[in-house]
Request: fold
Amino acid sequence: MKQIVTGDKSITFHSDEFDETYHSVSGAVEEAFKKFAEPALEAVKGKDFVRVLDICFGLGYNSAAILDKVLEEHLGCEVEIVGLENDEKILDKIKELKPMIKTYYVIQDAVANQYFYDCEGIMVKILVCDALKGIKQVQGKFDIILHDPFSPKKCPELWTEEFFKEIRKKISDDGILTTYSCAGVVRENLKKAGFKVEDGPCVGRKAPSTIARPGAP
Ligand SMILES: C[S@@+](CC[C@H](N)C(=O)[O-])C[C@H]1O[C@@H](n2cnc3c(N)ncnc32)[C@H](O)[C@@H]1O
Reply:
């Protein structure tokens, strides 16, 4: 696994297995905030307790970015994060990193404490599992779903109508899913699974990400 310094100076890695980087090389932390955390924040406002499902947890940047935004915007809610990740080698890298995310210590503490953290209204549980199985096992509904697999070309099983249908069962009626891809087939699969989709932010000059909510297309 080769370490790469991305455009915003944050670290990502290159996966030899998937021949792809874990984040956008234009800026790994920037991607976590702009494509995943910020568009999802709408699902937090007005709630005392928010549940987040982080599918393909990796280095946990997306979850930590959510925590930073909740604190920064004084949203004052308790947050429970459940992460699904099948590779302990990437989780093991978390302890070495110092990304510009204030709450990253929460993710590091969780990794140091058998993938569990519970303190002052923040709970994090990381489940080491195949997301295809994990999605069926997690209990209850989630307000925010962060969907961040490797690309549809390299990891097609996590972008299918069937997988999105399983995710649809786990999202609250007013929940939000954020994902980085805007590929036509991805959006079609989301729609067939019972989501309506819209463009998310464009980061740099790249194509938009996708925001999906439960509902008819
Ligand atoms: C693009 S990276 C995600 C980066 C991550 N969200 C972050 O903030 O660092 C994709 C992740 O999906 C994981 N992964 C690949 N296949 C998986 C599967 N079937 N189930 C769970 N995780 C998987 C990889 O190990 C990798 O950590």
Helices lie at 28-40, 61-72, 88-93, 104-112, 131-137, 161-169, 184-192. Residues 28-40 form the longest helix (13 residues). The two ends are 39 Å apart (CA to CA).
